[in-house]
Structure formats: C-alpha cells, structure tokens
Amino acid sequence: MTIQSHIDALRKTIPSGVKLVAVSKFHPAEMIREAYDAGQRIFGESRVQELAAKKNRLPEDIEWHFIGNLQRNKVKHIAPFISLIHSLNNEPLLLEIERQAAANNRVISCLLQIHIAEEESKSGFSPNECRRFLEEGKWKAFPHVRIAGVMGMATFTADENQVRREFRQLKLLFDELKTAYFPDDPFFKEISMGMTGDYRIAIEEGSVMIRIGTLIFGGR
Ligand SMILES: *Cc1c(COP(=O)(O)O)cnc(C)c1O
Fold first, then answer.
1. Is the pLDDT of residue 118 over 90?
2. By percentage, how much of the chain surpasses pLDDT 70?
3. Which pLDDT value is given to residue 217?
C-alpha cells in the first residue's frame, strides 16, 4: 500500500467535519511530499529542528502544526510560520509565544493541552489547572495568541472503555470552557484528540481534529 492509498482509505472513514493532521515526525520530506501529492495539506511535527529543516524543502502552502512538547527557547524558530500549536501547557510558554508572535506580526493559534490520561508520562494542564489558568485571565491580555480549543491524549491501553471515558472527559471540559470563557468566540472550536490506535473512538466522542502518523506513513 502507498501513502496515497492510506490517505484515501482514511479519508473515507472520517466525517467531513473532522480535520486530518498527518503526523510526519521522524519521516523524511520525500514521504511528506507523497502525502502532499495525494492532497494532504496539514502536517504535524513534534521537534522544532526537524520541522524547520523539512519546511524548507517542501511547498509553501503546507499548514504546519506543532504537536510535541515545546520548549520556550525554541518558539522563535517556528513562530514565523506555524499554523497551530497543539501543546500549550504552561503560562511561561504562553508568554513566549506571545512575544515571538508579536515580533513576527502574527497571531498564533494554540490549543490547551489537557492531561486526561491516567498515565503519568503524558504532559498537559490538569483540568483544574486549566480552569484556574483561564479564570485568572492573564491570557486575555495577549493579542498575538489565539486560544482555539483543547488537545488531549488518551492512555495507551487496550481497554476501549477507559479510552472512551478519557475522550468524553475532554469533550465535556471543552464544552464547559467554551460556555464559561469563549461563548462568543468563533475561534474556540477545536477538539484535537485521536491517533492511529484510537481515532475512531475519539471521533465518536466528539473529536474534530485527529492526529494520525502510523496509519499513513507506517512505523517509526
Ligand atoms: C506521534 C504523535 C501522534 C501520532 O501517533 P500515531 O499513533 O503514529 O498515529 C499524535 N499525536 C501526538 C501528540 C504524537 O506525538
């Protein structure tokens, strides 16, 4: 099977309102080009240097998403072009994104990364930390950052009920935050959840953005 056929098959199974982020981390620019030629335009990367190197070799109209843990001192390298940062998970990072976005005369969209998994290894705001962060309201003073929704990763487990519970929790949190802080903000609309192993469940539970690597590009 080719990358093109993987993408075509995947597109048939996802509803039209769900955006597909092709996660190309650790795969070479040539493979991204193949997906691009199959019509894919949104790609997700998790390392700043790798992303910057690939961007230079690929078409300008690609929409690059950053999905990994983002260190503050590296924000400047992606600020000129990044379309969406899925991993806003602390306030100092927000400050730095604001600074670099302003320096580039841009507004950068970000998702609040929420820790929904039982596993300790996954990073993000806890639901309560996220509530506190929004309640404090400092983010409102940052005109170059647009908070556009939430992102979360479920526990890596064969227990589908647990995965479903975690995604459901994220969707409920999104609804709560939307009502409390973004009721009139059309940009707060993204729920990024679901990867190769669990995207079907994520869509059933309300995901509007799935991040798929292995199913498109094969193993890493
Ligand atoms: C690697 C990664 C993905 C893609 O995972 P697959 O299982 O290969 O689909 C999605 N989201 C994040 C945050 C990742 O780091």
1. no
2. 99
3. 97
* Ligand 1 neighbour 89 (Cβ under 6 A): no
DSSP 135-199: HH-GGGG-TTEEEEEEEE---S-S-HHHHHHHHHHHHHHHHHHHHHH-TT-TT--EEE---TTTH
For ligand 1, whether the C-beta of 69 sits within 6 Å is no
- The CB of 124 under 6 Å from ligand 1? The reply is no
State the pLDDT confidence band at 1, using cuts at 50, 70 and 90: confident
* Domain range for 200: 3-217
By C-alpha distance, which of 122, 67, 114, 72 is closest to 94?
Answer: 72
Predicted pLDDT at 7: 97
Is 196 near ligand 1, meaning CB less than 6 Å away?
yes
pTM over 0.90: yes
Distance from the CA of 213 to the center of ligand 1, in angstroms?
6
Substitution candidate for ligand 1 out of 67, 113, 199 with most atoms within 8 A of CB: 67
- CATH number for the domain spanning 173: value is 3.20.20.10
Structurally, the chain folds into a number of domains equal to: 1
Give phi and psi for 105, each to the nearest 5.
55, 40
